[in-house]
Amino acid sequence: MRCTLGVDIGTSSSKGVLVAEDGTIIASATRAHDVARPHAGWVEMDGRIWWDEFVQIARELLDGHQDAEVVAVGVSGMGPCVLLADENDEPVRPAILYGVDSRSTTQITRLTDELGQDEITRIGGSVLTSQAGGAKIVWVADEDPDSYARARRLFMPASWLARRLTGAYVLDHQSASQTSPFYDIENECWYEPWWQQYAATIEQPALAWAGDIAGTVTAAASELTGIPLGTPVIVGTIDAWTEAVSVGAHGVGDLMLMYGTTMFLIATGEDTLRTPSMWTTAGAFAGTRNLAGGLAASGALTAWLKDLTDADYPQLLAEAAESGPGARGLVMLPYFAGERTPIQDPDARGVIAGLTLRHGRGDLYRAALEATALGVRHNVETMRAAGADIRRIVAVGGGTQGRLWLQIVSDATGLVQEVPETTIGASYGAAFLAASAIAADDVKPQIEHWNPVADTITPDPSAKAAYDALFDRYLRLYDGTRGVVHELAAEQRTH
């Protein structure tokens, strides 16, 4: 049975799928892991975990399905991350994760002062934020010089897997465009003056597109994983973009909403749109550009409440549904891990306003779901103000399993959401890219055949007025509490 293997390295787990030629999922496997938070604002992980879990997942899937003939491998992973390795491909320090890690604030300020915000935006598309991979590289040079002195190569999860599988040292354009300020978005290449100024001792990875073939599985990788020698492996890209592929939400006018540990949004177009509030990136495919955004905490926030209240998700969802729109007079800011877009404030913190002794855990859970929905609305309105033409919304990710959350997002934003049949996410998209990479042009798989729309979530008109009022309070609550919250964030950094 011919199939493709797709593996994605996520924030809280690695997931793999074996997928038949018609898109049917034959089997899946997962390995849970934790991130490390050694200091306030730091989020990192031992990059060696990524390969170890890939090997475990590949072995589990192939050993359990001896009739599976893997004809191509897809890879994907969270990002933009910064994993620096030496000349022997040994990590010199833990990988620094994407925008949830806010340690590089000083470097962002320095780079912006030295290079100029307008010039940074002209070359790379975006202002520097906690999402900027280049600023994280400079942080290592400044704050961990011993490790930086040994560093010779730059990896992200997908490129790390491709390296270990094939020996290729390659990074996709989409990921590279988030290594700000080292990528020239209009010319789709590394920007040599700034790379040489700030990262000259790091070898530049070759650049390719996500669905290109990086190389083939080596003898050493085949022995470890069980994948046949010579099997093609794609370059891969960042998980949110691979998730967009998995549901066909990467065409011009599409917006993908990814419901996961964090919430991510990707609007696709042909033009390079620039706004200081969002991230401008290259697309997953040649000829496309993205305006992207992300909440720093969404699923992580609901998981925190679940653990805090010692209740299970069905209980909390039932109680949240009973609470109703507005959570009986509560409004929450979901900035429990700082916030990414559109406020770009790593020192933002969570706020719950309106609490009384009458409120219960269902009200709090409802307020958390509404907070993420209002964060989505804030991002969508900012994207549209920047010129994004959003015609179609597709929801993906683990959070789509709970219809209440989807309904609240549609009600709060006024958006119709399409939910595909398969929402397993980036690993499925990676398997699709792998299948496409080896297929002839006249027989390439079509994602609408692999993964048709299964449900459509329509806004409830009767909830519009309540959520319009709540959104206004949401915006004013951040403005009104920002000063105190920033003082508390500064104090937290001392503990």
UniProtKB/TrEMBL annotation:
PROSITE patterns: FGGY_KINASES_2. InterPro entries: ATPase_NBD, Carb_kinase_FGGY, Carb_kinase_FGGY_CS, FGGY_C, FGGY_Carb_Kinase, FGGY_N. Pfam families: FGGY_C (PF02782), FGGY_N (PF00370). Residues 4-241 form the Carbohydrate kinase FGGY N-terminal domain. GO terms for biological process: D-xylose metabolic process. Transmembrane segments: none annotated. It comes from the Bacteria. SUPFAM superfamilies: Actin-like ATPase domain (SSF53067). Belongs to the FGGY kinase family. This is Xylulose kinase.
